[in-house]
Amino acid sequence: MDPMISTAALAERLGAAELVIIDATWFMPGTPRDARAEHAERRIPGAVFFDIDEVSDEESPLPHMLPSPAVFAAHARRLGVHPNSEIVVYDAQGLFSAARVWWSFRTMGHDRVRVLDGGLPAWLAEGRPVETGERTPLPGRFEARLDAGLVRDLARVRAALAGDGEQLLDARSAARFRGEAPEPRAGLRSGHMPGALNLPFDEVLGEGRLLPADALERRFRTAGVDLGRPVVTTCGSGLTAAVLALALARLGAWRTAIYDGSWSEWGATDDTPVVSGP
Would you call 235 a catalytic residue per the annotation? Predict the structure, then answer.
């Protein structure tokens, strides 16, 4: 199954008993926009808001790290999610933060989840209906089961870079990857992990939509990725890494793992090697 759903297909499903539509809009630090407020101003009918920063590990100093299964399940139940729910995730940028929530649900054992191709901008451009105000659904009965194979921590990433067979693919911009542009979060070194490859997440998109499979394959191969070997994606904080994981799922690689701490952890850790340049 393709990890994406079209606006037309979603419009036909509106009101379906098992459907849960999630607005996963999130903005980079320093962006003068309020995702929750914008959701209340204009959302796809029936949608509920998933706060990426709130549904996170509160004990971690790193941004929006995955919470425990129990904490994730509690949030999902408040959004009306059941074990049999058909989840569709979207965001207000087209395709940016929705992929993170797609990956989060899959990591918590729920595979019946897709991302709206083109997101809210495509929905609005087609003149489709919207609602205002926040919706409070009836509680669901979601139970989370962690799929640890979809997550990598610092130790596992060190092992990958030491040659355990996994390829590290960085979704940050080329300038940040090469150490030519500063990181948006204070206190982080500039550059990249030695041996990592780079494919900026926006290069797998076209006008806020995920590229077709043939174009995606060309992008990954041009970046040096061997599509026959496992890939671990990374980025600044584990968010746009999920866009690359989503793109790889379209190519059939459903088991792509994400380094959750990403550069927020690697770039702030004293004994992690950092290199600059291509």
Answer: yes
